[in-house]
Design brief:
- The protein is of the alpha+beta class.
- The chain has two domains: 38 residues, no CATH class; 119 residues, no CATH class.
- The protein contains four helices and seven strands, in the order ααβαββββββα.
- It has a seven-stranded antiparallel beta sheet.
- A hairpin with a 2-residue loop joins strand 2 and strand 3.
Length: 165
């Protein structure tokens, strides 16, 4: 008779206890099959996503400025849901980026001949920013104080416009 690495009783005991251990995570039996809903959006982010999906228009954005901020779609145009409004200090546009598996926003504002872009998630944490002059190439903004201040200003504009504040 050959000796096995694991005794049969230990293996049988582990198989019987494994499902119980999976259920003890606090989420109940539904966690085993991924049926428990996970919230990744903030309430305000969720409202912004729904607002843009319902009221925004479908558009394709040129990839240059997006690529500078790390949003790359293989050199192709970026599909977005977009909304634009005029403000006191320029034209404000918000885009809901839809080519990746998560929702992301790109806020941009035109002031004179310069576009300022900010890439953020649905929790409104800014990832990166870029400037795009009319007759030039997009440039990554390294001045974080300027970028954060401009991002907060653009974000405040859209929060004021959003229904159900």
């Amino acid at each position: 008779m050959t000796q096995r690495g694991l005794p049969r009783r230990a293996l049988l005991g582990a198989l019987l206890v494994a499902p119980v251990g999976a259920c003890s995570g606090g989420g109940g039996f539904g966690d085993l099959f991924g049926s428990r809903r996970k919230y990744t959006l903030t309430p305000r982010g969720d409202r912004m996503v729904r607002w843009l999906q319902n009221e925004g228009r479908d558009a394709m954005m040129a990839p240059e400025a997006f690529a500078v901020m790390g949003l790359v779609n293989g050199g192709r145009d970026i599909p977005v849901k977009q909304m634009g409004l005029d403000g006191r200090d320029g034209r404000y546009v918000i885009s809901l980026v839809g080519f990746r598996s998560v929702h992301e926003f790109v806020l941009h504002r035109k002031q004179g001949d310069v576009l300022t872009f900010h890439h953020c998630d649905t929790k409104f944490a800014r990832f990166s920013s870029a400037r795009y002059p009319r007759n030039g190439k997009p440039v990554f903004i390294t001045d974080t104080a300027f970028a954060e201040a401009d991002f907060q200003q653009q974000l405040a504009f859209w929060f004021d416009q959003m229904p159900g504040r």
